[in-house]
Amino acid sequence: MSLFPLALDLYDHPALVVGAGKVAQRKIRRLLSSGARVRVVSPVALEEVEGWALSGQIEWIRREYHPGDETGYCLVWAMTDDSRLNGEIAVRVKSAGGFCDTATISAGRTMRSLAQDNMGSLLIAATSSPPDPLFSRMIVREMGAMLREEGIETISIEHGCLREALLLEKLPLEEISRVDLAFFRENPDFSDRLVLYGEWFGQSVSDRVRSCVLKRGEQS
């Protein structure tokens, strides 16, 4: 059975993390960057996790996990160093119709957090089956390094602006296929690309792309 990759918008969405060690800390940091409302259940926590709680970024329930803590959560991360406990939590979450990632190999695991890297408007992610987090992170690092050499952070923003301009002008998106990485290699100057956009799609598209790229550049 193959995995189904999915990107979730977790802004203001509740998420439960059981455990507050190194693995949990990485998950919490990612959840916070996604805007999730994070509750952590653990009797002890690393200094950074405790700091998030003190600043109000997360809710920390300072005790051991109790059966039922997962009630009301469809996304749970069981990040303790107790494989048995992680498995029990995963089974409970699954039986309630939710999804659970675990820090240890567990039969009830229904979700995996992917190794990922953000570059401009592009998110790249990887996992493997059976799970090998170290290998997945290595692949993402290698891919990220190669793509950054191509200037992917600015390319992804410009490409997104072009797609948005075509939609606004009600032009067929199939035309964007010619604007690939080879196009950016052959036309490294932004002004030259704007001229080509005008020739291919019309001056209004070119103007929209220019305005969009400059605006996003100011925001970054």
> What coarse outline follows from CA principal-axis ratios?
elongated
CATH topology of the largest domain: Rossmann fold
Q: Give the radius of gyration.
A: 22 Å
Any low-confidence stretches, pLDDT <50, length ≥5?
Answer: none
- How many domains is the backbone divided into? 3
Task: Decide which structural class fits the backbone.
Answer: alpha/beta
Biggest beta-sheet profile: 5 strands, parallel
CATH homologous superfamily assignment of the largest domain = NAD(P)-binding Rossmann-like Domain
Instruction: Give the rounded overall mean pLDDT.
Output: 93
**Portion of residues in helices?**
40-55%
CATH class of the largest domain: Alpha Beta
Share in β-strands: 5-15%
Distance linking N and C termini? 40 Å
Major sheet: order of its strands? 3-2-1-4-5
- Tally of individual helices: 8
The H/E string reads EHEHEEHEEEHHHHH
Description:
With 220 residues, the chain is α/β, with parallel strands linked by helices. It folds into 3 domains: 1-113, Rossmann fold, CATH 3.40.50.720; 114-149; 152-219. Helix content is 46%, strand content 15%. The chain has 8 helices and 7 strands; from the N terminus they run βαβαββαβββααααα. The chain has helices at residues 22-33, 47-54, 83-95, 133-149, 152-168, 181-186, 190-201, 203-219, and strands at 14-18, 37-41, 58-61, 75-78, 99-102, 115-119, 122-126. The strands form 2 sheets. The protein has a 5-stranded parallel beta sheet with strand order 3-2-1-4-5, with helices on both faces. Strand 2, helix 2 and strand 3 (58-61) form a beta-alpha-beta unit. Helix 7 (190-201) runs antiparallel to helix 8. The radius of gyration is 22 Å and the shape is elongated. The model has no long low-confidence stretch (mean pLDDT 93).
